[in-house]
Amino acid sequence: MIRPEIAVTGLGMLTPAGIGVEATWQGVLDGKSTAATSEQLAGLPVDFCCSLPPFDASDILGRRTAHRLDRSSQLAVIAAQEALRDAGLDPATWDSSRVGVVIGCGVGASHTWETQGRRLQESGPRRVSPLLLPMIGPSTPAGEVALACGAQGPSLATGTACASGATAIVIARDLLTSRQCDVVIAGGTEACNTPLIVTGLAQLGALSSRCDDPASASRPFDAARDGFVLGEAAAVVILERVTDTIARRHRPRALLAGCGSTTDAYHPTTPHPEGRGIEAAMRTALTDAGLHASDIGYVNAHGTSTRLNDTVEAHTLRNVLPHGPYVTSTKGVLGHSLGATGAVEAALTVLSIQHALIPPTANLEHADPDIELNLVTTTPVDQPVTTALSNSFGFGGHNVVLAFRTP
Q1: pTM score
Q2: When you count CB atoms within 10 A of the terminal residue's CB, does the N or C end of the chain come out lower?
């Protein structure tokens, strides 16, 4: 059987650069860091993060719905609604049994865990919300998106740490190619800029400690990088078979050409020092897409701004793509949104293809001399991109690479 082509027909995003796809895209092109000191992190060893611009979820979702959802689920639902509008799909007119949802999350409902935990300790069990369990389940964001959109096909949650959002897109592709679904709402969400999670990551040594200058803290591939900056975000892509988009006369933003997923099986948090799993995922994505390495014009790198991860990824990129395509990391602007980041960066890669623009890497002032890449710095590069890769790697050795191309 010939595998059907898969189209990206809609995008939805909420990130520290802006509420919505266009605001986020413009913020990423501007190349200015969104990291800032956070009031709720005051007094902690790391007191800054990348937060969403102020907005009231009640204005979008309604007060009752917003009240019963953790922030991570709120963001997922809002992103999904924007993506469906962008795709020109009306839930009132589709066959809901043929619509699936796959939403990834790395940490989950930390706002609810922490606030309800404090209530129990300070005020006793009667003050704990009866909605606690429905709010914190790992499947909740996917279930709430399905509820909001009336999607009655498979509703799945992916948990592959910082690759969760990208894994969701891989699973969505499989649901379409196996013809279990006609439309899949896929992506990732994360909202864990909370004291416990930030403290845990700081204790692990993963976060930048530039408390005196947060805006310069996230600096992927830079010689002076010292850790990542935690961010919050949600991104959703709508995936359909190309034949269905043609039938309804909707032009895709891009095509999902191939996917590669591997596991290092090396260490709980550290990537394999030779990048074996990363390389295998990249080569699998190329083979799956029917592409040669030389076809790739751009890579949206995982680029966390940590010492080892950036070095390993850079060396692997040189091995797999020796022709030197453009490389950038949007975490310099947005920070690292853990389980959401794979979906955010997939969406940004699609936008780069669509607009023929490659965004800069914020704070990349002096590239690490051990890193030899064609890095985009300072300003966007006006460059047609016909094929691109989006890399996502996570704790536990999870590696996912997505290949996109022009329609």
Answers
A1: 0.97
A2: N
